[in-house]
Amino acid sequence: MAREPFSGHLDLLLLAALRGEPRHGYSVMEHVRRASGGRFDYPEGTVYPALHRLEADGMLKSSWSEVEGRRRRVYELTAKGAGALDSRRRDWERFSQGVASVLETA
Amino acid sequence: MTPGHEDWLLAVAASLRGPRRRRRRLLAELEGHLEDAAAEEVAAGASAADADAAAVRRLGAPTAVVETWNADVAARRSVARLRIVVVAVLVGTLAAPVALARSGNSSPRPHKPPPAKVKQERGAATTRAS
């Protein structure tokens, strides 16, 4: 899949990946790749600036943790992030339903 | 850390902007990501050299990380500067009327010459009278 659709919704995908459980960056990317059936193949390095930005905006919080013997920065959703995820999910659903409705007439 | 990983991280580190503490954290996370990606490639059957190369490839070009990071740093600095300007204008707007009110309320004190001058004036008056 093209990169643009992914990058346009990167924040939504990252927030969604952290909805269920705290994860470190690599695990976030793994989750997104697996859950999307491998459709989102994007430079993994750019996920970290996005995670930092979401944390600076109060959507995520993070701390160092030992994961399988390795020191990793683990991110988790804040209440503000959960609210933003719900809001963006609704926006996305409205958008995709609108596109689907138009496509049905084609 | 392998030479390939180190080169990639150095290329990123050379152009990153922003607070040192945040930059160091980002680089530590990227290093961890390279380790995890290489370990996954090895587990999938790749040789150590191929796994290291694949891990670097998966992270993408250093410039992509740097550009995304630096754009955010620049945006946050602009917002911080704008906040300072807004606060300065607000403080000025609030302080100016208060200062003006204070200067308007203060009544001028009657002029009172210093004691030495009073004595001199009295002395002169006595001389003129005599």
Descriptors for this entry?
heterodimer, A: 106 residues, alpha+beta, three-stranded antiparallel beta sheet, 5 helices, disordered N terminus, B: mainly alpha
Topology diagram in text:
The complex is a heterodimer of chains A (106) and B (130).
Chain A: H1 3-8, H2 10-17, E1 23-24, H3 25-35, H4 47-56, E2 60-67, E3 70-77, H5 79-104
Antiparallel strand pairs in A: 1-3, 2-3
Chain B: H1 3-15, H2 20-43, H3 48-59, H4 62-105, H5 115-129
Task: Give an overview of the whole structure.
Chain A has 5 helices and 3 strands; from the N terminus they run ααβααββα. Chain A has 106 residues and is of the alpha+beta class. The longest helix of chain A has 26 residues, at 79-104. The model of chain A is unreliable at 1-5 (pLDDT under 50). With 130 residues, chain B is mostly helical. Chain B has helices at residues 3-15, 20-43, 48-59, 62-105, 115-129. In chain B, helix 1 runs antiparallel to helix 2, helix 1 packs parallel to helix 4 (62-105) and helix 2 packs across helix 3 (48-59). Chain B is rod-shaped, with a radius of gyration of 36 Å. The A-B interface holds A 24-26, 29, 42-46, 48-50, 52-53, 56, 70-73 and B 12, 22, 25-26, 28-30, 32-33, 35-37, 58-62, 64-65, 68-69, 72, 76.
